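FAQ: What does the model actually see?

It sees only this:
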Amino acid sequence: MKVGKKRKEAEAKYDNTKSYTLLEASNILKQISSTKFDASVDIDVRLGVDPRQANQMVRGVASLPHGLGKVVRTLVLCTSDKEQEARDAGADHVGLDDYIEKIAGGWTDIDIIIAVPSVMAKLGRLGKILGPRNLMPNPKSGTVTLEVGKAVVEVKAGKIDFKVDKTGIIHTSVGKVSFESDKLSENALELVQVLQRLKPSAAKGTYFRSIYMSSTMSPSVSIDIKSIPGL
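And it is asked to produce this:
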């Protein structure tokens, strides 16, 4: 496969056969990112779990200390008595039946859906639309709650919801290239430490198999797992 000029230039700025600390990787990504926009910085963590086994599923939330650096578009599906609380907290969209019909028609121009428990039965028929986009509210991620105002504030401040995919990989964003390197590394560290706390008791052998960081359209940088505090 032909390697583009920009990619060659990026790969010349670091040793892609080495593994780096989170801070070193963050510095490298800031140097090799060549997009004209403020690219996202992503992390891929391969875990030693079998997601096909219910007792090895890894899913949870992490509150990144420095946020994601992007606007998180929120929809709150709730009863009328909770609508003002959601709006006061900064929700972008608030309602119920009208939004359920919009979603059924294909509208998904949102990043997070928060719902009160009593309306979840109405969302059942939207599973095929919301499921693949990871938009279905879930109690484990804090998006099914009576405290809709608190939930809106948390997700807009940098609370992320993650779930291991069928290949055993967690993939999520931890910030933007414009972030200072220490803030990127601290966000990444928070996620990794949350994953450590969520290690299933049924998972045997090496839990953290590999960790890579990358920015939009950049090569990936390998992380030295042994250098991460707490692992």
